[in-house]
Amino acid sequence: MEARQRIDELVGILNDANYRYYVLDDPIMLDFEYDRLLRELEELEAQFPELARADSPTMRVGGEVLSKFEKVSHTVPLMSLQDVFSLEELDEFITKIQDVHTDVSFTVEPKIDGLSVALEYENGVFVRGATRGDGNTGEDVTENLKTIHSIPMVIKDAPPRLIVRGEVYMPKKSFEKLNARQEEEGKPLFANPRNAAAGSLRQLDPKIAASRGLDILVFNVQLAEDVLFESHSQSLEYLQKLQFKVIDWRVLSDVEDINRQVLSINENRQELACDIDGAVIKVNDLKIREKLGTTAKFPKWAAAYKYPPEIKPTVVEDIIVQVGRTGVLTPKAVVRPVRLAGTTVTNATLHNQDFISERDIRIGDTVNIRKAGEIIPEILDVDLAKRPANAVPYVLPDRCPVCGAAAQRNADGAFTRCTGAECPAQLSRNIAHFVSRDAMDIEGLGSSIVEGLIEKGLIKSPADIYYLTLDEMKSLWQKGDLAAKKLLTAIENSKQQDVSRLIYALGIRQVGAKTGKVLATFFGSLDALMAATQEELTEVPDVGAVTAEFIANWFRQPQSQHMIDRLRQAGVNFQSKRVVSDNRFEGKTFVLTGALEKFTREEATEKIELFGGKAAGSVSKKTSFVVVGENAGSKERKARELGIPILSEDDFLNMIQ
Questions:
Q1: 234-271 pLDDT, tens per residue?
Q2: Using CA atoms, how far apart are residues 371 and 378, in angstroms rounded to an integer?
Q3: What angle do helix axes 31-47 and 2-18 make, rounded to 10 degrees?
Q4: Can you give the pTM of this predicted structure?
Q5: Do the Cβ atoms of 382 and 366 come closer than 8 Å?
Q6: Pseudo-torsion of CA 332, 334, 338, 344, nearest 10°?
Q7: What residues form DSSP beta bridges with 246?
Q8: DSSP class of residue 20?
Q9: What residue numbers bound the domain in which 198 lies?
């Protein structure tokens, strides 16, 4: 069968590319080519779902949202290790074993600072993954582990049953990207990669886990049916042959050599892709391990040497405030340069006003600083004995340092935000939001073009999009004016969008696409919405007191009023086209699934909302109806299990006619 052959071929090519990229760090194709082949595979699997394979790379994007994590009893306990905190303690551990077993050797491995998991395979197929928990019982996080590209879904030449143990971690680069995204969105930063990895692996929505860039290093064979090993190092070599991403290790016998290797790992830790918090020393010979045995808590044949955190004093020379792309004001301490964990530190994050106030950090203070998770410089405390007499408490400004608009602290959080609708610091993000699919839906106006327009000074507000000329637009292309004309047409057409999209596009806090539709339906026009009092806004369904305050405050700002005037002069539609004929679906929740032929998902959702109903993405006991198209899949099955009415497209059409 041609489709089956092509699917098999694509799965083989893409899995090999994944292995080379994620395990061997040796990419064999460009991202563009990989994405093209993956898209072809997705289309084939959608057309022939019965041919989808368990090891298809499409399975790594994240499945349906879970309601909870099921408990898992570990077949082989995932034991913890005894800690040692000095070379003297480590030498004592080693010599105690050598006194009895003179020919013993040890493996020395980095101790990854992550989350320990067990991966289970049956006949070479990955069937389950669980967290360590208390060592005997963990949680089933299979769906989230499937999103980690370095975990093989299918293993060739595997034993009938295989259980391996590994450490899930967040690479330093992924951690930096995640915290940058958190900061842009005004969300709390993760303290360190370990916390971020643990939080990501325990997300009930696997798609969130898939977006976090997690990785794993496998370091032990828990169970390998019908396979015998003489040493730990032999088992690690076996795991490498099965194409697992395996921890680095050295086999050593001499105490001094082991000490040097432990210290070497610490000295070179900054070069590693992940955080470590120590080194693990294990007896290599498995028979000797068996003789040594275990205690109730940990094996007697292994120890973890824990590296002490490096903390140094420095002086806060200044506190500066940066404005993120979401308008969040983030304070940063400029500190006297100090060498810490292998790099020179010149500044430290202060997070928000609460962080500064709790530690009473002032300009001129002598502070103790460390790298949280070996990455982010963080102030631990203040040496009050060295505080200058003229040091005063620090308070974040009440005006944006970039545009001068009012800066307001969230009523429901610790962050302070700039309220300027045309703030230059937020311009790129504001325009990207304004032109997005659920907002003004200006196709072709991507991030690279937006950045180009901003760099040339052609746009300083989302409203400026509607004043661009053909010559200005052509300046971004070297391939003629066809693309420029096409984009200008898309911009012109967007003026006729319903005002519900414009309300969402304005970027008012807590006003999403759904709330934009509700406000448009309730008030009928942007002018009526602008004239509404805060009390009147709270009368709108789904609009609470906090959201009403955000809306009222936004329209009062001078920058907002300037942008609205510019949009009006450009001829952007301010009227609602959303007319509710009746509330026949009031209190009803619909789920759409499968390939619909008679209308798009967006069209069906709009009909549901116009009749007072809600459209949801997943099936639950609260679902009223499930509308199914071709290849509906798991949502239809779940609806049948819960006894929820299932509608065909014709059934749904009859309901809305």
A1: 999 999 999 999 999 999 999 999 999 999 998 888 78
A2: 6
A3: 140
A4: 0.60
A5: yes
A6: 70
A7: 218
A8: I
A9: 75-306
